Amino acid sequence: FIPFRLDTESHAPERGRLTDHIPRDRDALAAFDAYREGYLAFVDGGDPHAALAHLRRACALQPRQALYHKVAALLAIRTGDYAAAERSLARALELGHPDPERVEAFRLWHGRALDLLGRREEALAAYRRVLEAQAVDPGVRAAARRGLRRPYPPRRARRVPIEFAKADVVRP
Description:
Helices cover 62% and strands 5% of the residues. It is mainly alpha-helical. It has one domain: Serine Threonine Protein Phosphatase 5, Tetratricopeptide repeat. A two-stranded antiparallel sheet has the order 1-2. The longest helix is centred in the first third of the chain and has 18 residues, at 26-43.
């Protein structure tokens, strides 16, 4: 890529290079590669256990990346490792996110992990906090209301529809 300006019809080096936005931090690059490998293992390989191993590597390389922890948690839920899911979601909540809607999605899934662990009172508290928040995605709000009515069932946990491109689920 050679930057140019249409108005002058000439080279524009002040515009930078197309690759200027690529992280140069080796750990960040390796973590993203691990995330991509997790995606391939899950989507192409149909193997949530292998995908989870890749996401755990991404989390180890970039421990302050909340979205890696969230996807690792979703995979842990999918594979039945609810304790690992709860820990990953607690970490994601601790780290936070610039978008408050994302934080409330973390909290919803944390509540679900708590439900799956049989910690219903803590799960209810998480669902209530989601409903008290100002910035909440409508689907997350509806899911939190459902969570107040009944615990999140393990049969649904086995089919969590993970969407790697959004680091989320298709529908909460």
